[in-house]
Amino acid sequence: MRFIFSVTLLSICSGLLFTSVSSASTNLPVLSDRSSASVSMASEYRLGRNWARMLRGSAPLLNDPLTFHYLEELLWDLAPHSQLSDRRLELILLDNPTFNAFAVPGGVIGVHAGLITAAGSEDELVSVLAHELAHLSQRHFAQRIEEERRNRPLVLAGILASILIAAADTQGGAAALSSTMGASAQAQLTFSRRNEEEADRVGMQTMVAADRDPKAMPQMFSRLQRSYRFYGQRPPEFLLSHPVTEARIADSLNRAETLPNVSHRAYSPEFDIIRTRSEVHLSAQPGEILKRFVADVNSSNPAVAHYGAMQAAMRTGQLDVAKQHFNQLPEPWKRHTYVKLSEIELLLAENDFAQAERRSDEMMALYPDSMPVMKIHAQVMHTSGQPERAIPVYRRLLQDYPTDTDSWYQLAEAEGLTGNIIGVHEARIEYFLLTGNIDSAIQQVTFAKREPNLQPSDLARLEQLEAETLEIRQQIKEDL
Q1: Which of 70, 66, 90, 99 is nearest to 282 (CA)?
Q2: Which of 127, 139, 94 has its CA nearest to residue 112?
Q3: pLDDT tens, position by position, 63-79
Q4: Residues 216 and 300 reside in one and the same domain
Q5: Containing H/E element for 92?
Q6: 199 lies in the same domain as 296
Q7: Which of 37, 128, 133, 175 shows a CA-CA span of 20 to 30 A to 79?
Q8: With a threshold of 0.70, does the pTM exceed it?
Q9: Which of 285, 302, 328 finishes a domain?
């Protein structure tokens, strides 16, 4: 295994290792120093994006356009206020119930869906994102490389493997990560503490600049620490990779107290909508969670209860119940874009394609450039037997979100339904490249070149894709 594969692992883990904090460090790293010069930013970018290909192919992704859009908006709200010099960010949302998030060199931010349900407020969720952005801006990856060259790099391969396993298999990942961390050197711990202190501090500074409450960070730490008692001998994945201590909570709270106050934000339902949506999606017992939301409709927050009941009833196939709870939502919620799109999802579940199309057309007229609106609209066209109308929407989406594996997959399906075989091959090639399945991508190029009646423009595109595929395969071979 190449050395760069080993050091990649701990760099990724720097975002995962919320290690305990002792004394506060006040010095920012010098980006031009020897540690940061160990790997160029261009190399970090390439390495991170190729690692992301492997992650997409190894772990289940949460293809929910509403949740993705919400988290991406939070990231882009933070990024201008961070110390990032390279703001080419990519969000990867994992369909995983564990409490976890990580930052990969090259601007890749990974979020497990379970982290959304773990947060008690939007600012608590934002605090984790700010922390991960700080790891990227301070280039802890480059520092780690230099540190590990002087220590034991072989430990890192086990940690990276554990992260990949944890993303795809929470049980196996927990055991592997626990074993690997138990074998790591004490010297690495001191280095991690320094980076984590800095990520806490820089992350809270970013929050203040973005008008977010920095006290949400210690609040999030406290919430995660309290959750430990519910897991007995085996804590959730987040607590295995992000140890939280009283000292760290106290330290972050003291830091927050020294920062300027931020203005109070008016209530907006986005966090409640997405958190409830994630909670229902991740529930192993949708029938039980439906009962819980129905029992809560007379609580202090009936809108959340009705939306949750609507989502849970859809999961259990009780579409009449879902419709009843949608109708009981307060008007401000019904006017919200996310709830309007949720209604379209309900109409699709009811096979009311005519009404779904009408509502979807209305949303496209109002928000023609909205990612979740386009995704739902393409789904409506595709599901209702109009793939020719879905294809241009998928193509528009992919101009802005070229790494959206779900859109490439759906585009291939839609192209097949319209008889555009070359379009099927091209979309499948892109899908396989994004999921690290290079052999399948090359195979698709070969199949496409065998198609009869290829136009010169078709052949030129295929040759370009073939060259790109071979280049990516060489990069992965060299880097990973």
Answers
A1: 99
A2: 94
A3: 999 999 999 999 999 99
A4: no
A5: strand 90-94
A6: no
A7: 37
A8: yes
A9: 328
